[in-house]
Structures are given as C-alpha cells and as structure tokens.
Amino acid sequence: MALTQTATEQLTTTAAADSPVRSEASEDAVLVQRVQGGDVAAFDRLVVKYRERLFSIIYNLTSNREDAADLTQDAFIKAFSSIGRFRGKSSFFTWLYRIAVNTTLSQLKKNRLRRFFSLENINDEASSSEIIEALSVKTRTEKGALVRELQERLNEALQKLSPKHRTVVVLFEIEGLSHQEISEIMNCSVGTVRSRLHYAKQQLQSYLQDYIR
Amino acid sequence: MPKKDPSPVTLEKLLQLKRAEQPSPEFWDSFDKALHTRRLQKLVERPSPWAVWARSLRRAVYVLAPTAAAAYLAFFVLADPGRTGDAPAAAAAASPMAAELEFAPASALEFAMASARENVVSAEAFSGDSPARNRFVDETISMSSERTHYRKVLYTPSIHSVARDGAVHYVAEPIAEAASRVGTASSARMRHF
User: Fold this and answer.
1) Would you put residue B2 in left (φ > 0), alpha (ψ -120 to 50) or beta?
2) pTM of full prediction above 0.90
C-alpha cells in the first residue's frame, strides 16, 4: 500500500514536472479555438497571459517604454487579425513571439523608433540582489544610483548590438527561451542562433567590462 | 578574519537584472484600455479602397498568371495542327524566346529564306489581315546579301518579307524543320495575326 502510494506520488511528481508546458500549450490551444470561433473574450485571456512577456521582449529590444507599449499592442492586434489563419503548426506562444519580434525588427529597420531611453523600474528584489551588493561594494556606489547606472549601461550595450544579435540575447539570456524556440521564432537554424549568441555576448563583454570580473 | 568575497559578476547575471524591469500595475490598466480600443477599431474598420484594390490585384495575379499560361499553351501549341507529335517543335513553341535564339544562326536562317522564297504569297492573299495587325513582331533582320528584309515573327516561326517597293509577302509554305528548328509555318496560322 505504501509502495503504491509512493509510486503514485512519483508519477504525479513526474507528470507535474512535465505538465506545465503541455498544459499551457493545451490551454492556449483551447483559447485560440474559442477566439477562432468568435469568442473575443478568450483573446483577452491570451493578452493577460502574455502581455508582460511580450512587453519585456520588445522593451529590451527597443529600450523605450512608449515604443514597447505601442509595438506590443501592434503585435496583439496583428495576432488578433490573423488568428483565424493560425493552424497550430507551432505553439501559440512561438507564433505570437514571432509576430512581436518581426513587428519590432521591422520598426527598428525603418528606424522610426524614439531614440532616447525611458527606463522601467527595477523591483526591490533585484535591487537587493547579490550582484548589486557585490557591485556596490566594488564601486563604493549607493545601491539606487548603481541600479540606475547599470540599467543605462545595459540598455546602451544592448542597443550597440545589431537587432538580430540583440534579439537572440534578449530571448535567451533575459527571457530564458531555448535555442530551438529562438530558431523557430527567428526562422533560422539553431546553429545560427548559437553563433549569434556567442558573438553578441563577446560584444557585450567588451562593452560592460567595467562591471564584469 | 578576511572578508568573504562576493560572488563574481558575470554578463549573464547582469543581463538577468533586465528581467526585473517591469512596469507598474497602472501601466497595464492604460495598456489594456488602449488595446481594447484599438481592437474595437479593428473589428469595425472597413478596409480602405486602396487595400481592397491591392488585395484584388494580388488575387488576380495568382489566378490570372496560370490561366494566361494555360491559354497560351492551348492557343499557340495545342491548337496548332502542324506541331502535334513533334517534340522539338513543341518544345520550341512552348519557349518562344528560346526558339528565337535558336533561329539566330545565319546559315540556318539563310537556308530557311532560300527555301521559303519560292513560296511567298502576297499579303492580299490573306483576306482581312494586314501587317499593321501583326502584334507579335519581335525584330527585324537585315541581310546584306539579300534585297529584301526579313522580319521574324514572335510566337510563330513564320517569316514575311518586305520587298523594296514596300509590298509585304508572307511565307505560305512550311519552313523546313531542320533548317529553322522552330517548327512550321502555315497560312492557316498566319491568319491569327
């Protein structure tokens, strides 16, 4: 009896570890079907679910809060307009991220975005993080000022990269996507993703060498 | 006791700070309102005439291009009794520009002219047709050794001659296949001009 219970617990644990991605995908699929069936409210749920992540990607690509808000809305409007043609060959989030990235890269290419940076607030948890503590000790700078300075330097460094290199860094290092997911979003090979990431990180290392040790 | 070194600062750790940059809840309120408004606009907006026209044109190109190709094949290749069962001629007819290029060698052209010259008929022989109605003229070939100018006609491997006095003569008989390598010409097909 005890063995059976343990086995059941193990199965449950394994399933739980595996299920978030699958359940998320199936939940998305259900919502997409509802939107395709005319349920506009279902799209609102998709918006609420993905707006932070989409905004974060676009904000880190543009380094501008207003542009990021506009482009995130553009991406959702485009997704809403073409969701009828979404056939589920890829996951919904890959499809949505692709729309967002393409919309942003297209705007960056047209060079129509605002050039100044408008910084978002870094939450308290990050402000008191290990890395801020370490840098604060090293540079003998007050934490608040250091956080502000780091934000600016990180944005500047990211903006020095080409849009495609920046996209790979943002998706991998900041958003935590896999190489495979990035290759699907950017419509290129995994090798290209790795190569771009390697080059971009080399560039960033040199731009931010004052902080890295 | 020496002070414990803080953990090393790496690029990855610096970039993770970007994860913590998030807008306030108020931002999302205004974001949702703006998005809702834009989505409603999208639902009710009618496409501009330009957008409708562009979409129609795009569809027309997709539909008309194969139709035009099929019509061309049907009209100029399949409907030509002189070409049936003749693979090289059919290939030449299916690719008129290639046929024109093959027609270029002077020796083959001269041979064709020589064999055709005996069989020219006056333009008046084709009732209702006139050189002015010929919409498929490709180029004019002048041959210094001849007193007439031969004009090559696109899409059909026929030729007509322009005499010095301005009279126009069409080739009435088929040109030898081996000489011209562009198929045959017949008076029946010339009526299409």
Assistant:
1) beta
2) no
